[in-house]
Design a protein that fits this description.
Number of domains: 1
Order of helices and strands: HHHHHHHHHHHHH
CATH architecture: Alpha/alpha barrel
Structural class: mainly alpha
Strand content: under 5%
Number of strands: 0
């Protein structure tokens, strides 16, 4: 075998093992884009939006090629108890891109939102059906990543109401809220009464922050931007889960880089957006400052994740057999 043949085989193997959790990166980048715009940095937001769309198109192209050349590998991910939950990250990414794009181009945002909403509904039902009908899943397979398929539905109203789809947004909100409660019980049961999460899954604990934060943002869209009692409860719950997640930060020390670290990005973005919105509606400088601090932390996290991902790709440390 020649050197060129060896390199070609290596590239082929990496395509086969290209992981669907990669789409979590788009969720984090989309959150950053929206946070920059809300913080009054439209130019930075446009740059981030362009980068986000470029990353999304690249990931879709690569994963589509994988699906064509290695359908068995995609089927294996679909049957995987953890990776299965990341398939709707594709549709959620579209909904988040539509949210980030809405201030610039409502027409295009509407098209992307409709495609994303249809994909999200389909993938959510498919994953839930798989969970219900697949008897090999065990309690130890549950992780906060399981929030993504069902609870991710609450992302839809954040842009959907403003784009002219209020009734559809209510349906998505209802689905996400119901399954947040159901899955929260299951996830906490797993975390408290069973073995600790494996090291690479520890970053997914940050996902606990995202459901109440995004539900808060969605509720504000649905109720006309009124900071009522339910909105305050949701924001309060966000802070509670932030505190819980912070108690586990020490477990990240010494861990090698992995794609699961991207699980930190979107929850921090959701927290930042929620804090900025709360600060504006409550005329609270403290909450606005907290949102600005969150945005700074988000920028640092995203920069670190982009650097770590690029270095891991260069070293051939990702897209390899587990």
């Amino acid at each position: 075998m020649t050197l060129s043949d060896s390199r070609s085989e290596a590239r082929t193997s990496r395509l086969e093992h290209f992981p669907v959790p990669f789409f979590a990166a788009v969720m984090g980048l989309s959150g950053l884009t929206t946070a920059l715009h809300l913080a009054g940095l439209p130019l930075a937001g446009l740059v981030a939006l362009a980068g986000t769309v470029a990353v999304f198109v690249t990931l879709v192209s690569i994963y589509s090629l994988k699906a064509l050349r290695y359908p068995g590998a995609v089927a294996a991910e679909w049957k995987h108890p953890v990776k299965l939950a990341f398939f709707p990250a594709f549709s959620i990414s579209m909904l988040l891109i539509a949210t980030a794009l809405a201030p610039t181009s409502q027409g295009l945002a509407r098209v992307i939102w409709l495609i994303g909403a249809a994909s999200q509904a389909t993938l959510s039902l498919a994953v839930l059906s798989n969970w219900i009908g697949h008897r090999k899943f065990q309690t130890i397979h549950i992780s906060p990543a399981w929030f993504i398929p069902a609870v991710g539905n609450v992302v839809a109203p954040v842009a959907g109401v403003g784009l002219g789809f209020p009734e559809t947004s209510w349906v998505f909100f209802s689905a996400g809220l119901i399954f947040w409660i159901v899955l929260l019980v299951l996830v906490m049961n797993r975390l408290i009464f069973h073995d600790p999460l494996p090291g690479r899954m520890v970053p997914t604990l940050a996902i606990l922050i995202a459901p109440p934060a995004v539900t808060f943002l969605a509720w504000l869209q649905l109720n006309g931007g009124v900071l009522d009692a339910f909105a305050r409860i949701l924001y309060g719950a966000t802070l509670v889960f932030l505190g819980l997640a912070l108690t586990q930060v020490g477990k990240l020390r010494g861990q090698p880089f992995s794609l699961s670290l991207w699980a930190l990005s979107f929850p921090v973005a959701a927290l930042t957006l929620a804090s900025l919105r709360f600060g504006t509606l409550a005329a609270s400088p403290g909450h606005t400052l907290a949102g600005q601090v969150g945005l700074t932390a988000l920028c640092l996290i995203i920069a670190g994740l982009l650097f770590g991902t690029g270095r891991a790709i260069a070293r051939g440390e990702i897209c390899v057999p587990e």
